[in-house]
Write a structure and sequence with these properties.
Oligomer: single chain
Helix content: 25-40%
Structural class: mainly alpha
Mean pLDDT: 80
Distance between the termini: 42 Å
Largest sheet: 2 strands, antiparallel
Strand order of the largest sheet: 1-2
Low-confidence stretches: none
Bound molecules: zinc ion
Radius of gyration: 17 Å
Number of helices: 3
Length: 119
């Protein structure tokens, strides 16, 4: 994981708005939620990702792509042959979230620029 400071204009990788700060994050290498035990992304993670990335399909796609690659690498390394989900199942597990993303409206951190006439 990177130790570089996060850009303040980008959402947290795992927004915590719905769970109130409770950590519904993946536990590697099995990719189950640390809090509820569901497969990651769990239902709370999914809701938080949709909320955090609202209006930012490209950013969510990149995030999901990184999670997909890490998840596939871990599961295919740790589970016996035939015990891991198929690549198609993993693809749907991660990228299926994109179908639920609302693309209308600005990102949550978007704020209107000040009226230049008021400067
Ligand atoms: Zn969870």
């Amino acid at each position: 994981m990177s130790t570089r400071p996060r850009r303040p204009d980008l959402p947290e990788p795992w927004p915590t708005g719905i769970s109130g700060g409770a950590l519904h994050v993946p536990a590697r290498p099995m990719w189950r939620c640390k809090r509820c035990g569901e497969e990651s992304p769990c239902s709370t993670q999914r809701q938080e990702l949709l909320l955090g990335y609202q209006g930012m399909r490209a950013s969510l796609s990149i995030h999901l792509g990184m999670m997909f690659i890490d998840c596939m690498g871990d599961l295919y390394t740790c589970l016996p042959a035939g015990g891991a989900p198929t690549p198609g199942e993993l693809y749907e597990r991660w990228f299926g979230l994109l179908a639920e993303l609302k693309t209308d409206g600005p990102p949550p951190m978007w704020k209107p620029q000040a009226d230049p006439d008021e400067w």
